[in-house]
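User: Assemble these into one structure.

Assistant: Restating your components, then the assembled model:
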Amino acid sequence: MAKILMKGNEAIGEGAVRAGCRYFFGYPITPQSELPHYLAKRLPEVGGVYLQSESETGAINMVYGAAGAGARVMTSSSGPGISLMQEGISYLAGAELPCVIVNMIRGGPGLGNIAPAQSDYFQATKGGGHGDYRVIVLAPASVQEIIDLMRVAFDLADRYRNPVMVAGDGILGQMMEPVELGEEEEIQIPPRPWAATGRMGGEKKLINSLYIVPEELEQHNLKLARKYALITEREQRWEEYRLGGAKLVLVAFGTAARICKAVVDRCREEGLAVGLIRPITLWPFPQKAFEPVIEEAERFLVVEMNLGQMVEDVRLTVNGRRPVHFYGRCGGMLPVAADVVREVKKLYGGEGQ
Amino acid sequence: MGTGIRRITIFTGHLGSGKTELAINFALSLKERGLPTSLIDLDVVNPYFRTRLVREKLEQLGLTVICPRGEWMRADLPALPPAIRGVLEDPGRYGVFDVGGDEVGATVLGRFKPLLPAKDYHLWFVVNACRPFTRDKEGIINMLESIEKACRLKVTGLVSNTNLGAATGWQTIVAGHRVVQDAARVLNLPVVMAAARGDLAEELRAHLPPGLPVLPLNLFMQTPWQDF
């Protein structure tokens, strides 16, 4: 099968179609608009439904409806649109509905700008909406990985009956890379006995997140907590890059991790023992990745396209055992490879603290 | 080049077909011939990886770059500077237009239809046969027709620009060129040139039909991990 050249945003669309998603509801916003454009063309080819909603609030509630009826469904947006969706995401988590939500992050807060950023990490991983809930968050770092992770996203959503967010940024959405799509598989969506598809003489099926009696809501919350604990135990994903003997370990996700990979290569060429941990799941945060390296590592440097969000999770994981430094750019500015190399050299060997 | 240099050359095509790199390199090739050349960023579709981001570099190389200035440069707005009209009306100036992708991008071009110098412009359609929706003859023809409809102008030639980014080999381009030729035959249009990263140009000339000009590309759009 020949390779093709795809934009990240297109790959999200193609990856979703190949994962069996047949319903997309969304509203255009830069820098992810190529995704709805792609699906507007592609979904009708496979008998699916593409619908541009009147707003992001509309889109997320359409997702709620389709997921409640048992469909594999997706929406996408960027920063401001994802903020508008938060009520719906909380409802989806409360009603335990599987779905995929894509956020191609742009500069914020507020209207911010349309340049790439990673400043929605807190929103994605720590809630964003109300209530005691979690959303599984996946952070691809290449166009090929997007294709592969879309399948994972829909499968995890089904396995745990939970919303899954795919978090990218403008660069990842807009850049083009060759991808191997492989053969298109016939996807068997797991049965959904809970879906509101008609009673058919059986029990009543109700999709709801309303528990008026506090005892019942507490039980529901505890049940969700057990599910989140299970996800945390089983689903941590990360990539290790040249960690052998690393004295300084970079930690970065998505586009920042691509930059850091190039930095690791450059530093290794110059004889500096530098490696990279790239979280693929932002929630659950891959704490397991840190234990094997913490003995040898003298320090960690977290690089993000924000003012320091994931660094808090790294600090919780490292728990004071090693210094955890931070370097970031924000507002749509990028920490280019040369800047990160300079930062590494400042810290390496214990100088510049 | 191909069917000869004309005062205005417009690059249009599918989103991500390579128009921006082509327009930049083609404009530089005109400038090297000593022609006063302006490069016009008409891309109001996609705010990433467009000409205006490398404006300073191109101006140092002697090109005049026409795009929104100041804070408007990075805005997600369909703003068109008045200087575009200046290029179209100045008989002594050569203009290279980098149009936004697909029919949405081409719509903007329609606005300049009455100002194009009769018989003194090319409207070239760039094809990358490794892109979704333009991988075969039918896809290419569909895309070309929707662009023609949007800009209300007729394409005058195809540019063979098949590539897989950094993973491109000359074989990729040669295989893609066959698809482009098939489409060109049906459309009754010439393939005016092929383009390829500079290091592939020599090998390509040996494998493409003789007489087909190959424009070597010096790539300007960079990812932040290439930036040391």
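Chain A has two domains: 4-186+208-234, 239-347.
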